[in-house]
Amino acid sequence: MFWEQDSDSGYYRIWLSQEEVGLLLDRTDDRMQQLAFELGARCGLRSKEILQVAPADLRDTTAGKMLVVDSAKSDDQRQTPVPGELAARIETVGEVRDISTVEPVIDASTRTLRRWISGVCSDIAYSDDTQYGEMWQYVSMHDLRRTWATSLKGEDVDAMLVCDWGGWNSLDTFLEHYRGVFAPDAQRKQRDKVGWL
């Protein structure tokens, strides 16, 4: 886990490792919460975008399974990759809840999403088996998007493609606000390239 505190507001921006994302998902008992967290951490969606996801938004493309989202920041749509297992769960939730393919699969509000992440992360923060315990209480839904973007870049995905998938019109905005510090996994991978380290 890496974090940066804004000197003016005191707000923390946090980047989780993939191991920590796994811990968050494992500690989530509710399937709707887990689905929401995965849409943030695995697809880079903003809270408002998470709440709009419907089975009809899934597309099979030549680039693989994609999720089409209406941007929360503009009138544009974008496509972002979606892991196959997550796509299958989105479809299954729609079938189990017997909703039309255009109805959102998560019935919640942005306030509810904030409450969900706060509750799960507080539980993690006060458990005995986590590193950076108290910092977990500051993890937000937007930190999942931040983690997603940085993790992609750490896997050597072209920054312009990350911008396209994430809906950023400016590489400068992405680099200034989202890229952050490379995750430990990415740092380890780069270190392993250097024989004398």
Record the SSE blueprint.
Elements: E1 2-5, E2 12-15, H1 18-26, H2 31-43, H3 47-50, E3 58-61, E4 64-70, E5 77-81, H4 84-96, H5 110-125, H6 141-154, H7 159-166, H8 171-179, H9 184-191
Antiparallel strand pairs: 1-2, 3-4, 4-5
Helix pairs in contact: 1-2, 2-6, 6-8
Short description:
The chain contains 9 helices and 5 strands. By secondary structure, it is α+β, with helices and mostly antiparallel strands.
Task: Report on the architecture of this protein.
This protein is of the alpha+beta class and 197 residues long. The chain has a single domain, classed as hpI Integrase, Chain A (Orthogonal Bundle). The protein is built from nine helices and five strands. The strands form two sheets. The chain has a three-stranded antiparallel β-sheet with strand order 3-4-5. The chain has a two-stranded antiparallel ribbon with strand order 1-2. Helix 1 runs antiparallel to helix 2, helix 2 packs across helix 6 and helix 6 crosses helix 8. The protein is globular. The chain starts with a strand and ends in a 6-residue tail after the last helix.
